[in-house]
């Protein structure tokens, strides 16, 4: 017998994250390392805990091994109680057949039994690939005040960027009268953040109807939300002010990490929780130089860092130079190597005097410049030169003749 919960959170964490390229070849996007000691999923999980939501279902599908292992029993986020806590929910075989999650709405539909054992009044639907801090209680209060069937968090974006987002057009009272998916000529700058609060009775009804609807893609944005709007349900936009970043691309992931080094960015990490490796304090030799960088536990730094982030267990060799780069757990940058504007994934070795990535001013044409990415468990051999905007696959060896 499970105790009744006013709110249950469902965290969508099963996407492939193909736009992150080699970083998600064998890793679910929410499990991608971020900010020196975190993984992306730490942010919505911590937001749930800080909002008093202690029943969280995490819907996994693509490459779930590392993500499931990382979440474990939920103890780092205080989500390990007997009758609540966190549960990883993967697709499973039922009496009437089995299927992968075929869309965001179908993923929730397949887990109706999980939600109903808590008999909630409200369900919060979250994405596992956003960096932000948010008190969901304030959004829930807004939802109750408006007597809404659905409330969608929105953030104001510049008009010139609005066509990249799903846009919600609203009346003066915040009620939604129209959805526009990446409109060429947006009517407003209210961009959906992919954070929804539903009254459970209404959501259950529309999920069931959508599941039976032929031709549906079983997606919230394409199917369920428009159906609710067409039916005249009370739907409202909740304005959010604060830092929020969708880290679904290489550029946005790099930018969000670099934002942590910008004193003008107000993203306070003091109550974002994570599963930390048990490693000794980092060591910085007297030959090293560190400017405006983050260095995690277990690192050994003998070279030069500038505007960079080192995750746990990274080694930077003598006379190595790291600039505007992200070096993920366990990577080794050997003596004399030069890493510029790059993301080096876990357990990769960059050999002596190798050069990975370039500064923008080092390219002949700015169109040829971009972040260089090296996948996990890769060896870049001595003296190899890898230019800007290159993506090196995981589990490979790159010798001096390859660029």
Automatic annotation (TrEMBL):
It catalyses: alpha-D-glucose 1-phosphate + ATP + H(+) = ADP-alpha-D-glucose + diphosphate. GO terms for biological process: glycogen biosynthetic process. SUPFAM superfamilies: Nucleotide-diphospho-sugar transferases, Trimeric LpxA-like enzymes. Keywords: ATP-binding, Carbohydrate metabolism, Glycogen biosynthesis, Glycogen metabolism, Nucleotide-binding, Nucleotidyltransferase, Transferase. The keyword ATP-binding applies. The lineage of its organism: Bacteria, Bacillati, Bacillota, Clostridia, Eubacteriales. The keyword tRNA-binding does not apply. Residues 9-261 form the Nucleotidyl transferase domain. Belongs to the bacterial/plant glucose-1-phosphate adenylyltransferase family. InterPro entries: ADP-Glc_PPase (IPR011831), ADP_Glu_pyroP_CS (IPR005836), GlgC_bac (IPR023049), GlmU/GlgC-like_hexapep (IPR056818), NTP_transferase_dom (IPR005835), Nucleotide-diphossugar_trans (IPR029044), Trimer_LpxA-like_sf (IPR011004). Residues 286-364 form the Glucose-1-phosphate adenylyltransferase/Bifunctional protein GlmU-like C-terminal hexapeptide domain. Homotetramer. GO terms for molecular function: ATP binding; glucose-1-phosphate adenylyltransferase activity. Pfam families: Hexapep_GlmU, NTP_transferase. Gene3D superfamilies: Hexapeptide repeat proteins (2.160.10.10), Spore Coat Polysaccharide Biosynthesis Protein SpsA, Chain A (3.90.550.10). Pathway: Glycan biosynthesis; glycogen biosynthesis. The record marks 61, 100 as: Could play a key role in the communication between the regulatory and the substrate sites. Alpha-D-glucose 1-phosphate binds at residues 101, 166, 181-182, 192. This is Glucose-1-phosphate adenylyltransferase. PROSITE patterns: ADP_GLC_PYROPHOSPH_1, ADP_GLC_PYROPHOSPH_2, ADP_GLC_PYROPHOSPH_3. Involved in the biosynthesis of ADP-glucose, a building block required for the elongation reactions to produce glycogen. Catalyzes the reaction between ATP and alpha-D-glucose 1-phosphate (G1P) to produce pyrophosphate and ADP-Glc. Its EC number is 2.7.7.27. HAMAP family: GlgC.
